[in-house]
Amino acid sequence: MLKNLFDILLGNMPWFAMSLVLGFPLSGEQGLHNRIDDLVWAKAGDVPFAETADDAGFLRRVTLDLSGNIPTAGEVSEFLADKSKGKRKELIDRLIAGDQFAAHWTERFSVMLLERLDQGKVPKGEWVKFLKQTLRKKPLWDVMIRQMIEANGQGVDRPAMKFLGTVDHHAMTENIARLLLGMDLTCAKCHDHPSVNEWKQAHYWGLFAYLNQTKQATHKKEEKVYLVEGLAGKKVEFESVFDLEKMSTGPRLPNGAEVEIPQFEKGEEYEKPAEDGLPAVPKFRPRERLAKDLTAKENELFSRNSVNRIWFLLMGRGLSHPLDQMHGKNSPSHPKLLELLAGEFVSHGFDLKWLLREIMLSETYQRSSRLPEGVTKVEPASYRVTSPKGLTPEQLLRAVLRATGNTKHAKALKVDPEAEKFDRKGYFTGSNVELPPSLAEMEAIFIQTFGRPPGEAEVDFSPGVNKSLFLMNDRLIEHWLKPRAGNLIDRLSKMDAPDAMAKEMYLAVLSRLPEKEEAIWIADYLARNEPRRTAALGDLAWALLNSAEFMFNH
Amino acid sequence: MSVPPLDVTKAWPSLELEHGRQLFRAQFSPDGHWVAAGGQDKLVHVWELEKNEKKSLDGHKTWVSSLVFHPKEKKLFSADYQGVIRCWNYEKSDKPVWTIDEADGDNVRALVVTADGKYLISAGDDAVIKVWQTRNGKLATKLEGHQECIFSLAVSPDGKHLVSGDLYGSVRQWSIGDWKQIRELDAKLLHTRKENFIADVGGVRSLAFSGDGKLLAVGGMKEAKSNAFCPGKPTVLIFDWATGKVKNELKIKGKSDGPFNALRFLEDNTLVGHTEILHTASELTFWKIDQPEPMHSIKNGSGYDLSLHPDKRQLLVPTYVPGGSSGNGGRGKTPENYLSNTSVLRIFSLFAKPEGKKEG
Amino acid sequence: MLGNLGGLVGFGSLLHPSIAKQIEEKQKQVCLIWLDGGISQYESWHPLPESKFAGPFRSIKTSIPGIHFSELLPNTAKIAHKISVIRTMATKDPNHSTGVPRMQRGDPLDRGVDYPYLGSAVAKLLGPAEPELPPYVWIKPGNGGFIHREAGFLDARYGALALGDGRPPVHIHRPDGVTAELDAARNALRQKANERFRAYRNTSDVDAYETSYDMARKLMARKEIFDDEKLDPKDRERYGLHPLGRHVLQARQLLEAGVRFVKVNSYHWDTHGDNFNMSQRLVPQADQPFAALINDLDDRGMLDNTLVVMMSEFGRTPLINSRLGRDHWPDCWSIALAGCGIKRGAIIGDTTKDGAFVNGEGYDVGHLFHTIFSVLGIQSHRQKYRHKGQKLSIANDDCEPIKEVML
């Protein structure tokens, strides 16, 4: 009976439409990636979508997203030549398992969570090592974040403590709210948020109350600084600058109940006595409690913020955007999708690689950035077409080095320990005419030029005059476009046929084959510049490096 | 009365003359009966020590920058930051004997009188040394050569030579009488101009000959860190007068960060100097000049001048006294409680304190 | 160039009023001369030679009967009738680290955000005066580059293009060996490459990218406005060969070219030690170019549309310390303003006899910001910034413009 009704009602409806009408997935077998597509399709209605990205475009995007670099010319050729059906899925799996995955995602998460501030007492290297080791295995997002909040120096989690920075309880409160719950509560410190009704001053202080006992202590033997917890005996008091009403709160998540602060008999407050310079460990440790409560499965604020930010890192915009404005007035573009992703992430144990893989397997992710036929503009939030994302400063450096065939050379640079420290400021003013002596220094130069200032969220790529000037006129770029054994210009200059040159150049720089017309103008430019052919090759490569197509992950 | 033996390690403050404004210069008269001092309040103050009386000579329109007594006559010469020099008969009159209105294009910063008492020599911002007749204040001659502001002058014990020191650390020797430049000594160490400075800092702030005329002490500070706080390392260069070479560089033990404004040799060739420091105590410093480290020092507020009593046993230091409202900003301060800083003329006796005698 | 456009103002009445107004608004420019560390008011604008706190310098007559400046401002004394001086600034911050941002951000009521510095604020509120040029250029000793942080919570693009030691960022110059022709040729290639990419995509992303290249190339094409080599040697002499003289002259060149806001910094005015020897050498370095700039802008007909402000984060203590220095004094100090809606010859402010305290209220930096915004035609109480859904006042709500110095 039911079966017949379905037939009548739904007729020849496509399966994704059916699942919508019915409000539940038709098949348990169906992967999350299909359901992502269903919801995006459903929201868009009957309008044209961009086609699936071609193989070259897909390869470039996936390689940038998972390995932080463009593919080599060889990898492009190979992928294009591969006729197997499952090659995209295999590529994703290979890259997730690959060497560069952990390094690249360490960068991404580090930039997201620290915002390029070298904060706190943990050396940057230790933090990076912690993230890398975690990401090499089976990273579980809730565990990672829990480690970062509860880190107190007992055991291996000291590096994770870098996230909390120095003992600035307000900065901690604001960062945790903004980065882990999607709530920019800065304004709510002094009063209820002026324009977001549901963000209360009590939310700010509730989070603050988990953190205000945190302090630094130096372990005498190790001579290392730890973040430890002092005794939390009473609630935090606060008042609004508007009505001066006195209020108080104990530790409380914005969407949770207030945690009762247990009262102990004098002498009974501590679990462990002071030792080696570290103070006694109290029985009640609110920050540790926060680590647990905040990352709990039940905390939707956390799970939704988590998937929103991961979605953003792959799609270039959050389902809820801006990322730190997750509140009722700022509805997500796809509420059901956000809910679905959050729920599935939780039920898969916050398995990061699984989530990345599912999103990348979706048609939505794999869609071309070229507009559908006959359409001139598409709202980016509809995901009917892929929005180009800017390359991160680190991606850009690696991409330029790889495109111009100078990676090996740059990696081989050895800094003379006797040499004077490289004058980076002088590099930008012109008083230092040396080339940077190491890959690390090059990276610093790229970050300074293309990154956001430390302390600011790196959430969008905004073109800038200084960035364009840099790519046009920087000495490094010029240097890399001079022929040197094995680099791109050297390889090209040894070729004869313009067609072959065009092919090599496009594969290396733009990770695709040139179109016929493009091959022609390359041949044409080279013919017109015959007496200075090597230099002309540099001109062409320069033009491609400076093109929007290179600069974006599209 | 027998003179007690000189022992700077036992030196003690034996007299204090308080003054309600900051004083930068103070000198004993050649007979030791008078003390003259000048500074911010534009007046020249003269104390008659035995009578414990003070009178103030009014005439300068701005801070008094320098003071010197005539070695033989009852005359006192004062100069100011607007290029004016006045001659006073301090014992008899409140009115100047004579006045030079434009002794310098800008400021007069140093005065000396030749040993025979014939000439008063002045120098300052315009870098030209002027020689005046003490009798009438008429210009005798000008000595040109310095390139920058002159801070200090001294006459050699034999009375034959004048030395002058400027901002750039150039010390020049001139012959008295035929008024020629003899040579230039290099004290550039006492001048600093780092790349990011917007002004030259330091200079030769003090000069002193040893009693035998064999040594010239040149004081100031080196290695200034900025042209704003102007903190440096107080430094004295000891020149061998015969060769013109630096024999020794003297330092201080304490924390003072300003220049040596004054230096004096005692009769046993002990050198004494005083410097400044911001918002805390400085010190009066003594060296045996063959040792860079001081042999002794006495805590004292910042001091700007030194004068040795003719008995060679008393040292006069115009010393800074905070008015109680120092430092940044006016929070809690009112026109009623925000008062000028002041000073004390502190006289140190350079010998062991007699039993039962009270300080001050 | 705006300098030429200046001539047009005279014909304002011939133009449609709204167009005339637009031109006028478009023309309003600012030069902020920042004496970092704090110039001493006693050694400059407010000498008070009879005060117990006076330094040793003379006070001299100015071009306004009865008004005296320190002798260290001889050139400015001659043009006192063209400027205003406020001698009763009473600000709140006696520290550099907090005082500098507080003064340059206008000390708005705390909303938990980093307010933009004045130059970025004006860049945001008025936009560029010349579309080809960056709206906010900062000439300073030391290092340069693009300084985002001046923009505060505004988009980083409102930051300052800083010319370190007066030099533009090195990347404004083509690399050696790249001729103008070659540069044009390879940019043609670049544009060609972009066309194809742009053809099938949402145009806004690609356009923004292309725009930044257009702006970069325009800046390269006009890099002569940053080049002080060609400046008239007589002008250099007049402004002074010291860094501040050179940089203020360069500021004039940038204002003439149409840069909206030019900040010129001079450092090391924090004369806790040897204040008088230092002031004697420092203050004339401000006097000379300040007076020259006012005169030049006036001669060019630009002064009525160009606001010039010379100030520090605070003044210096009346009290003279043990190192013959002066410490920080926000309680009663002086700043100078000229041009663009500012009265000529208004030397205002009632202080106690010794100049240590203000009689009455005094003016805080909030008042100054309202004044600056008002004379630039910005409604300082009505106009708001929008930031994360909040409306934020552009200047301190509790303050008002300083009418005494406004036309």
> Largest sheet of chain C, if any?
9 strands, mixed
Count of DSSP H/I helices of chain A: 27
Distance between the termini of chain A: 49 Å
| Fourth-level CATH superfamily of the largest domain in chain C | Alkaline Phosphatase, subunit A
| Unreliable residue runs of chain A | 1-28
Largest inter-chain interface?
A-C, 62 and 58 residues
- As for the number of domains of chain C, it is 2
Q: How many E strands of chain A?
A: 8
Question: What's the alpha carbon Rg of chain C, rounded to whole Å?
Answer: 22 Å
| Mean model confidence by pLDDT of chain A | 90
Query: How many domains of chain A, as an integer?
Result: 4
User: How far apart are the first and last residues' alpha carbons of chain C, in Å?
Assistant: 27 Å
Main β-sheet, spatial strand arrangement of chain A? 1-2
How many DSSP E strands of chain C?
A: 15
Content of β-strand of chain A: 5-15%
The name of the CATH topology of the largest domain in chain C is Alkaline Phosphatase, subunit A
Q: Strands of the largest sheet of chain C, in order across it?
A: 6-7-5-8-1-9-12-4-13
Pick out the low-confidence regions of chain C. Answer: 1-15
Global Rg of chain A = 27 Å
Q: Calculate the mean pLDDT score of chain C and round it.
A: 90
Give structural notes.
The complex is a heterotrimer of chains A (554), B (360) and C (407). By secondary structure, chain A is mainly α. The radius of gyration of chain A is 27 Å and the shape is globular. In chain A, strands 1-2 form a two-stranded antiparallel sheet. A two-stranded antiparallel ribbon of chain A has the order 3-4. Chain A has a two-stranded antiparallel sheet with strand order 5-6. Chain A has 27 helices and 8 strands. In chain A, helix 6 (87-97) packs antiparallel against helix 15 (352-361) and helix 11 (201-211) crosses helix 12 (286-294). In chain A, strand 3 (236-239) and strand 4 form a beta hairpin. The two termini of chain A are 49 Å apart. Chain A folds into 4 domains: 1-26, no CATH class; 31-51 and 302-349 and 357-387, no CATH class; 121-131 and 142-294, no CATH class; 389-553, no CATH class. Chain A has helices at 2-10, 15-22, 32-44, 55-67, 73-81, 87-97, 99-114, 124-136, 141-150, 169-181, 201-211, 286-294, 300-315, 335-347, 352-361, 363-366, 393-403, 407-412, 424-429, 439-450, 465-473, 475-480, 488-493, 498-509, 516-528, 533-545, 548-551, and strands at 214-219, 224-229, 236-239, 246-249, 270-272, 281-282, 389-390, 552-553. With 360 residues, chain B is an all-beta fold. Chain B has strands at 12-19, 23-28, 34-39, 44-48, 53-57, 64-69, 76-80, 85-88, 96-100, 108-113, 119-124, 129-133, 139-143, 150-155, 161-166, 170-175, 181-186, 191-192, 201-202, 206-209, 215-222, 233-240, 245-250, 262-265, 270-274, 282-288, 296-300, 307-308, 314-321, 342-349. In chain B, strand 12 (129-133) and strand 13 (139-143) form a beta hairpin. The model of chain B has no long low-confidence stretch (mean pLDDT 94). Chain C is α/β, with parallel strands linked by helices and 407 residues long. Chain C folds into 2 domains: 2-6 and 15-166 and 232-405, Alkaline Phosphatase, subunit A (3-Layer(aba) Sandwich), CATH 3.40.720; 171-227. Chain C is 34% helix and 16% strand. Chain C has helices at 2-9, 17-27, 74-78, 96-105, 118-126, 180-199, 203-221, 233-239, 243-257, 275-299, 365-375; strands spanning 29-35, 59-61, 68-70, 83-89, 136-140, 145-147, 160-164, 261-266, 306-311, 315-316, 328-329, 333-338, 347-348, 384-387, 390-393. In chain C, the strands form 4 sheets. Chain C has a 9-stranded mixed β-sheet with strand order 6-7-5-8-1-9-12-4-13, sandwiched between helices. In chain C, strands 2-3 form a two-stranded antiparallel sheet. A two-stranded antiparallel ribbon of chain C has the order 10-11. In chain C, strand 14 and strand 15 (390-393) form a beta hairpin. In chain C, helix 6 runs antiparallel to helix 7 and helix 8 packs across helix 9 (243-257). The longest helix of chain C is centred in the last third of the chain and has 25 residues, at 275-299. The radius of gyration of chain C is 22 Å and the shape is globular. Chain C starts with a helix and ends in a 14-residue tail after the last strand. Chains in contact: A-C, B-C.
